[in-house]
């Protein structure tokens, strides 16, 4: 419980982050909150006469005038998107303080903020790049020390054909893949605590089944319980953030497409490819919004519900699903024979 005698900004930042942690944000998001709060607070303390360190800066000192000065210094070397994100974090922080009865009002409306630029999609470059990536990874069997193409193909299929984020892939359980034949789907623990269901086509279902079977051969049936992590490393342990990023980057290198991955996109380029191809193949904004798990497409657009049938039709029309289906007809049997025997 917070000590009401300690009204330092530093103390209340930690209290706010503790409250936010109950919403299950990713570690990356929590780190960004802390960085934005501390960076601006440090600048606020430096602006005072005499300057005050963060642990001595009082919440009561954070007037509209001081916050404007601090944000002016913060904004000078940074991109508008970074300033907008920090402004939003501080706005949420003050809303929390008002709710806790710590301050009488929120000074952030008096602090200017740049308009948030719309995020630009960063799909893989090249019309056939996704197909080349899938084919290269499915055929890989000799150059790796411990090849596991079934697992690698499953990761790529979930990102390219279901649009899952990195954190969502890591959160998947074996039981997350549900439904009857022809109506298979993935239950996703989405960003911001918003669950969603993404339909998967037969090709993706076959890739996942082939991967689970290869995992059973490697580590035994007891390692494939419904509550087990779906994606594991070569020791059978749940994949972690760094391991998953390395796996995807390794797939890019093995396929020879590193020059076609937008800078900074990494695994997210696969999700953006999924969304871009949905749009190109005729899916509407409502289907794309629902499938990607976005609360809205723009700050002012309301959330639009669509039916499961519309979602499945949008996924079925995705060219990557069709390409994967064709690839499986040619190569999965060969891959299984090459790798499955090694256990």
Describe the structure.
Strands 1-2-3 form a three-stranded antiparallel beta sheet. The chain folds into two domains: 102 residues, DNA polymerase, domain 1, CATH 1.10.150; 212 residues, Orthogonal Bundle (hpI Integrase, Chain A). The N terminus and C terminus are likely disordered. It is elongated and about 70 Å long. The protein has 343 residues and is mostly helical. A hairpin with a 5-residue loop joins strand 2 and strand 3. It has 13 helices and three strands, in the order αααααααβββαααααα.
What brief labels describe this structure?
single chain, 343 residues, mainly alpha, DNA polymerase, domain 1, hpI Integrase, Chain A, 2 domains, three-stranded antiparallel sheet, disordered N terminus, disordered C terminus
Q: What's a concise summary of this model?
A:
By secondary structure, the protein is mainly alpha-helical.
What is the fold's blueprint, element by element?
Blueprint: H1 9-21, H2 27-47, H3 64-75, H4 80-99, H5 129-139, H6 149-162, H7 166-171, E1 177-178, E2 185-189, E3 195-199, H8 202-219, H9 241-255, H10 268-280, H11 285-292, H12 308-316, H13 319-340
Antiparallel strand pairs: 1-2, 2-3
Helix pairs in contact: 1-2, 2-3, 2-4, 5-6, 5-9, 5-13, 6-8, 6-10, 6-13, 8-13
By CATH's scheme, which homologous superfamily of the largest domain applies?
Answer: Intergrase catalytic core
Write down the domain tally. 2
Instruction: Decide which structural class fits the backbone.
Output: mainly alpha
Strand share of the residues? Answer: under 5%
Write out the strand line-up for the largest beta sheet, numbering strands in chain order.
Answer: 1-2-3
* Proportion of residues in helical segments: 40-55%
Q: What kind of oligomer do you see?
A: single chain
Major β-sheet annotation? 3 strands, antiparallel
Number of H- or I-type helical stretches: 13
Report, as a whole number of angstroms, the end-to-end distance: 52 Å
* Element order: H for helix, E for strand: HHHHHHHEEEHHHHHH
Uncertain runs with pLDDT below 50, 5 residues or more?
1-5, 297-308, 335-343
CATH topology of the largest domain: hpI Integrase, Chain A
Specify the overall morphology. elongated
Q: Quick one: how many beta strands?
A: 3
Radius of gyration, CA atoms, in whole angstroms: 24 Å
Organism: Micromonospora musae
Domain Tyr recombinase: 119-316
Keywords: DNA integration, DNA recombination, DNA-binding
Domain Core-binding (CB): 7-98
């Amino acid at each position: 419980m917070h000590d009401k005698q300690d009204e330092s900004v530093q103390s209340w930042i930690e209290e706010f982050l503790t409250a936010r942690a109950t919403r299950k944000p990713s570690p990356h998001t929590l780190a960004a909150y802390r960085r934005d709060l501390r960076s601006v607070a440090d600048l606020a303390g430096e602006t005072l006469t005499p300057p005050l360190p963060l642990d001595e800066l009082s919440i009561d000192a954070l007037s509209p005038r001081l916050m404007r000065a601090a944000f002016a210094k913060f904004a000078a070397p940074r991109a508008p998107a970074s300033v907008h994100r920090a402004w939003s974090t501080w706005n949420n922080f003050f809303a929390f303080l008002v709710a806790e009865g710590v301050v009488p009002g929120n000074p952030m409306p008096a602090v200017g903020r740049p308009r948030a630029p719309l995020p630009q999609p960063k799909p893989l470059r090249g019309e056939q790049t996704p197909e080349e990536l899938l084919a290269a990874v499915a055929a890989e069997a000799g150059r790796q020390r411990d090849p596991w193409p079934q697992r690698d193909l499953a990761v790529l299929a979930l990102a390219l054909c279901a649009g899952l984020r990195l954190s969502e892939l890591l959160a998947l359980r074996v039981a997350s893949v549900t439904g009857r034949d022809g109506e298979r789907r993935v239950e996703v623990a989405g960003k911001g605590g918003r669950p969603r269901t993404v339909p998967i086509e037969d090709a993706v279902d076959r890739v996942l089944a082939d991967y689970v079977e290869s995992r059973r051969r490697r580590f035994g049936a007891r390692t494939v319980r419904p509550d087990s992590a779906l994606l594991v490393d070569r020791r059978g342990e749940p994949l972690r953030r760094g391991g998953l990023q390395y796996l995807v980057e390794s797939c890019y290198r093995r396929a020879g497409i590193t020059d076609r991955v937008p800078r900074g996109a990494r695994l997210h380029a696969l999700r953006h490819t999924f969304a871009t191809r949905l749009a190109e193949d005729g899916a509407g904004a409502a289907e794309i919004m629902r499938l990607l798990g976005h609360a809205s497409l723009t700050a002012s657009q309301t959330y639009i519900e669509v039916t499961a049938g519309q979602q499945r039709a949008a996924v079925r029309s995705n060219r990557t699903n069709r390409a994967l289906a064709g690839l499986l007809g040619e190569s999965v049997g060969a891959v299984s024979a090459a790798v499955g025997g090694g256990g």
